[in-house]
Write a structure and sequence with these properties.
Radius of gyration: 19 Å
Oligomer: single chain
Structural class: alpha+beta
Shape: globular
Strand content: 15-25%
CATH superfamily: Oxidoreductase, molybdopterin-binding domain
Helix content: 10-25%
CATH class: Alpha Beta
Order of helices and strands: HEHHEEHEEHEEHEEEEHEEH
Number of domains: 1
Length: 319
């Protein structure tokens, strides 16, 4: 399959980090929501549609862990994305991710494991039962969607690696290739993107590695070919295009936590009582809406399943 390269982005078109962050804060303050009108209008980037040429998964199990809320449409999910490797605007991922080559794909697994290996994604998925998990997704910026992911529990892969007694955390690293990813040429993040979970968070049944969407192979702009989905944490815990998984004894520092530790803590749980330094987290906008008029749920509504992981912790200090 031939993939056309994305057009180069001139350095003058890349927003510097401080300007970008200030602009985003201004938008949040000015309208109490996000500039998302293009989702329903002519300016919407045309999404790559579900394909009918061998990219559809079959025999998907429907998980009883799914929410009963109505999922967002394919168009909404695939044209409004945070995928900073392709740019800072929500439409950039759909515009520029056509350059991303997702096959063959390998994932290095290493660290505190007894069975380190370089895994080929085809081998990881061979014979593995995949499930549809319809999850609520809330971004730190205050917008939310309901997304029908296709994937499998991360705990299955971790068990396969056989963690040592020292393993307490899991670190994920995404692909960082400026030849395919124009955003990596910019300096608003120190690449590659990395993120981490506590081992018990990673092995919780709700935590999955997603490889699809709406029964289709995961579109490039949504983190193809494999990404992390942790439904009770902010969107920046949803690292995409994973190329390395390390089990560690010491707590890792994620890329966004390293870049702005006053704004992005290690835990990143959805918590309406802890304000972001530049806006309140008490309410959110459910796309394709326009205003933050929906109360944010603690742990994104997954408290019954995950609150016990944080028993006794100060969640304002450990944000």
């Amino acid at each position: 399959m031939l993939i056309k390269p994305a057009p180069d982005i001139r350095s003058s078109e890349i927003t510097d980090k401080v300007t970008y962050l200030n602009r985003r804060a201004f938008i949040q303050t000015a309208i109490g929501g996000l500039a998302i009108g293009a989702l329903a209008g002519e300016a919407t980037v045309k999404a790559q549609q579900p394909a009918a040429h061998g990219r559809k998964f079959e025999n998907i199990r429907r998980s009883n862990l799914s929410t009963t809320e109505t999922p967002n449409t394919w168009q909404q999910i695939t044209t409004y994305n945070n995928f900073y490797e392709f740019g800072v605007d929500k439409k950039d991922a759909a515009t520029y991710s056509k350059t991303l080559k997702t096959s063959p794909w390998t994932i290095a697994t290493e660290g505190e494991v007894t069975r380190p290996a370089v895994l080929h994604l085809e081998e990881v998925l061979k014979g593995r039962a995949l499930e549809e998990r319809i999850y609520r997704h809330r971004c730190v910026e205050g917008w939310s969607m309901v997304i029908p992911w296709i994937g499998f529990p991360l705990l299955d892969l971790i068990a396969q690696l056989q963690p040592t007694s020292k393993a307490r955390f899991v670190e994920f690293t995404s692909l960082s290739d400026p030849s395919q990813m124009p955003g990596v040429r910019a300096s608003y993040l120190r690449w590659p993107d990395t993120e981490g979970l506590r081992l018990d968070e990673a092995m919780h049944p709700l935590t999955i590695l997603a490889v699809g969407l709406y029964d289709e192979v995961l579109p490039n702009q949504d983190g193809a070919p494999i990404r992390l989905v942790v439904p009770w944490k902010y969107g920046f815990k949803s690292i995409k295009s994973i190329v390395r998984i390390r089990l560690l004894e010491q707590q890792p520092v994620g890329a966004w936590q390293r870049e702005a530790p006053q704004e992005y803590g290690f835990y990143a749980n959805v918590n309406p009582t802890v304000d972001h330094p530049r806006w309140s987290q008490a309410k959110e906008v459910r796309l394709p809406g326009f205003f933050k008029n929906r109360p944010t749920q603690m742990f994104n509504g997954y408290g019954d399943q995950v609150a016990s992981l944080y028993a006794g912790m100060d969640l304002k200090r450990n944000f």
